[in-house]
């Protein structure tokens, strides 16, 4: 009996060691290719099987990331906000099917429920341009949650759709949910989380910052690429944010929590062992939302079908277990907390660069845990290609495309990335680079009506009408329903006749 036990123990040791080596190889490669710069924790059956940090918390100073490095976790915060609301429900202090107006009387939309905030079916307007007038009038003002309702009222902002009829990811929903937490509990959102989630889960390195723009000592610097054709990371403090509201706001509830990978693991363990939320409420959070028409919320992430519950997303394919998650993205940061409930496997990734492919990385991790073949996410083809074009090295750029066509697994290539690169060159008046990008994209995605449509637009802006006409005709051939191609063909025909 002792021999059998020893053999089982020995087998387990070697399996864990081999997996650890594979995980380290995976993340070392990702780090080397600037696809991951941060902390990772992987657990199986409730036990940590891999934990490590890669890269620098401050690239300029060459300060390395360690287990105590703190990251803004971005939209993983939404799971905390949903948990807090459901805790209040569990205590009988609110009903999530009640109107938001019951708890926030000034809220101008009587038909929106608390539940519709948490499952993103409220129909509320997005915040991106909502405060433009307010910012112009008060340029020094820091916009916060308390400004949302007065702005809705002032501008009589219409709903985007009937509540419950559609699903649309919207940060405003969770800002309002945070305000409900404050109204019912009588304490700030930050203090509520500290008392009811952080402390019970023993999360000693997590907090909600008073001002999200002020970093604490252990917080990492964030890095991004300045454009779609750069291969050099820069500190986000040197970049202008594309949305003015992101520069001028201090929202909470939708994002903003600062934490560590280790603390997120404590949160996951406490939550899924029902220490901070009862099973009934947690199950409700992890149940896919049904719309007014009876259909389940359904969208795609990284080619996989996904649904959404209350602050949590979940894969609809449960053949490998029920997998729930929430990812996060802000300029210079990507994150994910993923948990396979069936197999009790967890992946936590916090990366201080804005292009970490957290979904492909998570998929590779789950394959390693399951002893299945996996693919290490590759470098972005369009970025390297764009860098070569910008460096006026067209020959090497062409060679790169030919190499990819022969061996597609060597790089990661997406239609969307090439489309964005081509249009960025076009906006910057780098027309030849734009045309070359769309030409290469047409070789890689020969059945994409959208690529040929975009190629036609770039050619037309470069005054190459005959060639533009051919691209629009090709686009229409691939997609007979492309109304833009039809209109552009008529327009170009008219221009050529006049000529």
Descriptive report:
Helices cover 43% and strands 12% of the residues. With 499 residues, it is of the alpha+beta class. Strand 10 (304-308) and strand 11 (313-315) form a beta hairpin. Helix 12 (381-390) runs antiparallel to helix 13. The termini are far apart.
Secondary structure topology:
Blueprint: H1 2-32, E1 38-44, E2 47-53, E3 56-58, E4 63-64, E5 71-72, H2 77-90, H3 114-118, H4 132-137, H5 148-154, H6 171-185, H7 189-198, E6 223-224, E7 234-235, H8 244-248, E8 258-259, H9 261-272, H10 279-285, E9 299-301, E10 304-308, E11 313-315, E12 323-330, E13 333-340, E14 345-351, H11 358-369, H12 381-390, H13 394-406, H14 415-427, H15 431-444, H16 449-461, H17 465-478, H18 483-498
Antiparallel strand pairs: 1-2, 1-14, 3-4, 5-8, 6-7, 9-10, 10-11, 11-12, 12-13, 13-14
Number of strands: 14
Biggest sheet character = 8 strands, antiparallel
* Total helical segments: 18
- Average of pLDDT: 94
- What does the radius of gyration come to? 25 Å
Proportion of residues in helical segments: 40-55%
Proportion in β-strands: 5-15%
Provide the low-confidence segments as ranges: 5-15
Shape: globular
- Briefly note the structural class of the backbone: alpha+beta
What distance separates the N and C termini? 92 Å
Strand order of the largest sheet: 2-1-14-13-12-11-10-9
Oligomer: single chain
